[in-house]
Amino acid sequence: MIxxxxxxxxxxxxxxxxxxxxxKIDEYGLNFRLVFLTIKIQNNPNASQKELAExxxxxxGAMSGAIKKLIKLKMIxxxxxxxxxxxxxxxxxxxxxxxxxxxxxxxxxxxxxxFDGFTxxxxxxxxxxxxxxxxxxxxxxxxxxxKSK
Length: 149
Known about the structure:
By secondary structure, the chain is mainly alpha-helical. The protein has helices at residues 2-28, 32-43, 49-56, 60-72, 94-114, 120-148; strands at 76-80, 88-92.
């Protein structure tokens, strides 16, 4: 069945991309979650730990543990708020900024290499196919949510 063959190809592509990106993250001594969280902090400088936990869909306890790890790794630091010193603002350090920028550059270069040899037309066609696939998956997930309620 062709659907099974296509699904197997998508799974294989996902695994190769994940392996490639994991190798890069391993160089930093981090994991995906910590890199993702550092980027979230960078993009949401005024967010509280509670707000960040809600955004990334983890418990506040898990967020607290991740924050402690990031501070220990010198990726972020806590700076007391001027308006209320009982609360801290999370700030990405220079080391954190360097790692984030390096990782973003790496991801961009990998995406460029991944699509070497593709014409712009082929990329648009591929985009349309994956958009359809994602829409189908969204609909399937909606049906699951609807049936479980």
